[in-house]
Design brief:
CATH topology: TIM Barrel
CATH superfamily: Metal-dependent hydrolases
Structural class: alpha/beta
Shape: globular
Number of strands: 11
Number of domains: 1
Radius of gyration: 21 Å
Strand content: 5-15%
CATH architecture: Alpha-Beta Barrel
CATH class: Alpha Beta
Largest sheet: 5 strands, parallel
Helix content: 25-40%
Length: about 425
């Protein structure tokens, strides 16, 4: 098996901005700090941005998962160190990885809130240069670049998409619902310069769950289990927005990935949108010409899952050219370091062709990613070959013995506050 993950995450290292900003902006860059309690955070324009434990629990026992701020010495080095990350990938048999950001938030909301947009753009460009050149560029063939968007202005955003595409990036992270962030929705033509740039440059728009800073919750005092259960449900709303907006019909070459949204819901969703179109389009004004909404969805929307046995079992109702797998390292849903074994449990009866499409071929095609050439052939890219490189790598689950995690079960959690993080 060859495995490429289209959804992992990076905990940004302290030296991210070093040497990447014009002199006049150096003192304005985010600062990596250590708080009085020993936890680490980023400080930007007076705002302290901690890394909560759930963002980086690879190698930790499940009883130590939580929302408390952490320090780097409590993290597995693969969370933030690119050389250690690749070693962890090898131990997992993972060939390639697309990594989403952490402290700037999924679509750069942190920098978008900067009042001086020249400063904001400098920060986004510096981040993207680090992400492409260092994080993705240090180990050729191992990463799929996915830059931040300059989301506050569609023309500036389009220009940054074109700039990073010229550096080899065929993905960009974007909000699943920009209207929740205070910008026009995708039902307007406001974002057309962005969609066109992505279409022209063959850049996949990655809409990660939670990228609208708004999640499905039942009530603010519900147990956190409700939030975790409903989190993937967010993406169904994004799917509906995409299908009924003019975007996919207006930009026929555009591809959108619904990151970490799972695939088990898709068959019913496609049945529902076609049923709705048949019953209601004459009065709602929707016009798909000689196509059905489900066909437009399948032409444009890439779907992604971590562990979704029901979705795989429903594959006859999916476009298998668009289904891709995710590892989610180092988040709490990650299947590291046993991703091949975990995925294999869902693959009984699946053809080798479909397994290859799910595990790596679709990702390679959609993201213009060619690791085989970089690494000297497919034989060097398999789970077995990579794990052979990692013989002796310590992947044991280890407790951090954090005082801050004691008595967690008695703590109340504000789900609305979590959503904003």
């Amino acid at each position: 098996m060859v495995m490429v993950s289209v959804d992992d995450h990076v905990v940004e290292p302290p030296n991210l901005f070093d040497g990447r900003l014009p002199a006049k902006y150096v003192d304005l860059a985010p600062k990596f700090i250590t708080n009085e309690d020993g936890t680490n955070a980023w400080l930007y324009e007076g705002q302290i941005l901690p890394n909560v434990a759930l963002n980086a629990v690879a190698g930790r026992p499940r009883e130590e998962y939580g929302l408390e701020p952490t320090s780097f010495d409590q993290l597995r080095p693969g969370c933030y160190d690119i050389n250690e990350r690749v070693k962890d990938m090898d131990a997992n048999g993972l060939l390639g990885s697309l990594c989403f950001p952490s402290f700037p938030q999924f679509c750069g909301q942190l920098f978008a809130r900067t009042e001086d947009k020249d400063v904001a753009l400098a920060m986004v460009r510096a981040y993207n240069d680090w992400h492409i050149d260092e994080w993705c560029g240090t180990h050729k063939g191992r990463f799929i670049p996915c830059p931040l968007p300059a989301i506050w202005d569609p023309e500036v955003l389009a220009a940054e998409v074109r700039r990073t595409a010229a550096k080899g990036a065929h993905a960009v992270t974007f909000s699943e619902n920009p209207s929740k962030l205070g910008w026009p929705s995708i039902h307007s033509d406001y974002w057309d310069p962005f969609w066109k740039a992505c279409s022209d440059e063959a850049v996949v728009v990655c809409m990660h769950i939670g990228s609208s800073s708004d999640v499905v919750i039942t009530s603010p005092d519900a147990p956190i289990d409700c939030l975790i259960t409903l989190t993937p449900m967010n993406i169904v709303q994004a799917a509906a927005d995409l299908v009924w907006s003019p975007v996919l019909r207006k930009f026929p070459d555009l591809k959108v990935a619904l990151s970490e949204g799972g695939i088990g819901w898709i068959p019913y969703f496609l049945e529902r949108v076609d049923y709705n179109y048949d019953r209601h389009h004459l009065w709602t004004g929707q016009d798909f010409g000689d196509q059905l909404p489900s066909q437009v969805f399948n032409q444009h929307v890439l779907t992604c899952f971590i562990d979704d046995r029901f979705g795989i079992a429903s594959r006859e109702f999916l476009d298998m050219d668009n289904v891709m797998w995710e590892c989610d390292y180092p988040h709490s849903d990650s299947t590291w370091p046993t991703a091949p074994e975990t995925l294999s449990k869902s693959l009984d009866g699946v053809s080798d062709y479909d397994i290859d499409r799910i595990s790596h071929l679709n990702a390679m095609r959609h993201f213009h990613y060619d690791p085989f050439t970089e690494l000297g052939g497919k034989q060097n890219c398999t789970v077995g070959a990579l794990r052979q490189r990692a013989v002796g790598r310590d992947v044991a689950i280890k407790s951090q013995n954090m005082d801050s995690i004691s008595k967690r079960g008695t703590r109340s959690v504000d789900l609305l506050d979590i959503a904003k993080r």
